Amino acid sequence: MEQMVGYVELNTIDRRNLSASVSRVIVSPDERGRGHGTSMLHRLLEIGFEELGLHRIELRVFDFNESAITCYEKVGFTREGTLREARRHEDEYWTLVQMSVLEDEWRTGA
């Protein structure tokens, strides 16, 4: 029996600028560390660049989510900058890292 191990979204698709954003990258806790996130992101980039003809795919991730950042870098994303204390969570602020991958970078690394 097949079981869902994760979920990822490609959204905010901008047809004029040929760009989109990755969001909600979720891997079931008992399935983490098995390469599912990397596989899902490889497929998402393939869809974005090959099927949709995008030029740029970006995402934002909390700076403390080191395992996610490592996964994103592994599939070709590059850090572009930091959005300091951009999200409020209860009584504290969390910082985001902005990352992206361009079509030509993906093609040479694929």
Count of individual beta strands = 5
Strand content: 35-45%
Do you know the CATH topology? Aminopeptidase
Percent range for helical residues? 25-40%
SSE topology string = EEHEHEEH
Q: What does the overall shape look like?
A: globular
Give the overall average pLDDT. Answer: 92
Corresponding CATH architecture: 3-Layer(aba) Sandwich
| Tally of separate domains | 1
Question: What is the alpha-carbon Rg in Å?
Answer: 14 Å
Instruction: Assign the CATH superfamily.
Output: Gcn5-related N-acetyltransferase (GNAT)
Summing up helix and strand content along with how strands pair, one would put the structural category as alpha+beta
**Largest beta sheet: strand ordering:** 1-2-3-5-4
Q: What is the tally of helical segments?
A: 3
Q: How would you describe this protein?
A:
With 110 residues, this protein is an alpha+beta fold. It has a single domain, classed as Gcn5-related N-acetyltransferase (GNAT) (Aminopeptidase, 3-Layer(aba) Sandwich). It is 29% helix and 44% strand. It is built from three helices and five strands. A five-stranded mixed beta sheet has the order 1-2-3-5-4. The longest helix has 16 residues. The protein is globular and about 45 Å long.
Question: Any key phrases for this structure?
Answer:
110 residues; Aminopeptidase; five-stranded mixed sheet; 3 helices; globular
SSE order and pairing:
Elements: E1 6-14, E2 19-27, H1 36-51, E3 56-62, H2 66-74, E4 78-89, E5 92-102, H3 103-109
Parallel strand pairs: 2-3
Antiparallel strand pairs: 1-2, 3-5, 4-5
In short:
With 110 residues, this protein is an alpha+beta fold. Helices cover 29% and strands 44% of the residues.
